[in-house]
Amino acid sequence: MCGIFAYIGTRDDAPSVVFEGIKLLEYRGYDSWGVSYIPNIKSKKIMFEKHSGKIGDSFLKTTIKSKIALGHTRWATHGGVSDENAHPHLDCKGEIAVIHNGIVENYQELKVKLSKNNHIYKSETDTEVISHLIEDRLKTSDIKTSVFDTFESLIGSNAICVLDLKTESVVACRNGSPIVVGFDEKGKQYFLASDVPAFLKYTNKVHFLEDGEGVVVSKSGIKIFDIKSKKEIKAKIKKLDWQLEDAEKGGYPYFLVKEINEQPKTILKSSLINKDELDKVSRLIKKSKKIVLIGCGTASYAALAGKYFFSNSNIQSENYGAYEFLPFAKFCNKDTVVIAISQSGETADTLIAIKEAKKYGAKVVTIVNARGTTMERISDIILPIGAGPEIAVVSTKAMTAQFTILYLLSKTVENKYNFAINSIENLSKKLKLWMNQKLFDEIIKLVKEIDMQEHMYVIGKNLNYPGALEFGLKIKETSYIHAESFTAGELKHGVITLIQKDTPCFILASNDIVKNEVLSSAAELKARGGYIIGVAPFESSEFDATILTPDLEDLTIFGNIIVGQLLGYYLGIGRGADPDKPRNLAKSVTVK
Ligand code: M6R
Description:
The chain is an alpha/beta fold. It is built from 17 helices and 25 strands.
């Protein structure tokens, strides 16, 4: 949560480079933004501008030339949404500027220790304490030592980036919150960011800072250090296969609709990258006595779908929202395989669950999209999903890629890898043909019929149950309509009281063994006045309206879920929501 970006290089428009960079990190928080820079012409203070509100709606005022700048986009934790609480936070003299991602859990304590030095606070944030701590240390130490020692005194998961006027350098540190360093090909420009897409326009050569690593960047170059020992370490530079177009809207009005439309391609791509790792995990599963699938939000629904895929392949497994896993972690042991699912690889609750499972000896396999993440480092095996950068806050293509990997994994354990690859190829082809203007027009027509409703219900069973949960979440997140999802079996046990005349009820169904049961539920809802919308590969007299989806056995849920993504998108647009940045959400939930 919160996006960090810094630039040092040869260009004279560093503030604009940073401004554009943090725009691409806005999915990490959009309560406020700020940019600070050292002008090319000598200045006695660091210059900055900061504002509350979304950066996407704003302009950078400055045209002052500068080669060194940093910027931040904020998801508020300590201190309300205001200009004062926006980052950067400066020391009393205006000679250092700090941006921060994380929470300083001991900031009150640190503030008390600092109080005798009469620092002037301008915000209510935990971050500002960091600026004043560095200011004090600078009286006796250099900038590197001051920043590193200050960082060592912070409790919590944090990443900071500090701009220093005197040495015209940037010092950054990581512990639990991501920072990646970008190196341009000529070795003359450096980028620091919370995530790669922010600087993908300039370079794909990166070093992911590890926890406990710090970096010092100045005109004369870049050095990476172990924060504790202050010893220099060698950069582990990787070239990523992400392309510039992954970080651009490519002609679409929003990243969300671009990413929804990319799915026929991303599903196919994710199926083709992991053969060796899938074999390795499959062997591990065969040897194990217990399999646990965990994740948060959408990833928890992928975990639930995984349980159904596994069961269809005769593999028994359990699943938990990672936030509810701790009471059950004690049942893990060396014969347990925990499969953690995450787009960002930084979700706090999932990380905590993984660490706890490991304490009891479990092996951890992580299915993850972002690269160089904490989850990647603490897991035993990684199954990358290869969906490419997902920039819209709401997860779409990462989720279908997670489903793809889970399906493939279940079939690999069953020794049916080739069958699964062919099925995914067929799925990708069918989705590509189906996701055309006719489908979009049908969904837009439906949206016009139901967009004044405040409550909607989504019903599914078996694999369509996690499908229904995800479908409902997409509607909630992107349109702010209350869309509640249930397994069809739950309906008669209470939920049915909620159905009134014309209440939209989505019935997610497949041509599977529970089809008739689900249609009976549709009939029961219809009898109570519900407006029944079938999302299925068949028509039925129980449906008042139908969105037809590709008929693909277990893989039918992909199309069924995509209908929910598109509905959420069009409902949201119609109701004036921002599809890429829904209110109150952050892409990567790095706090408990
Ligand atoms: O990065 P992760 O996949 O671990 O994130 C988990 C959830 O926070 C995430 O899926 C969230 O539910 C999204 N808002 C879904 O659109």
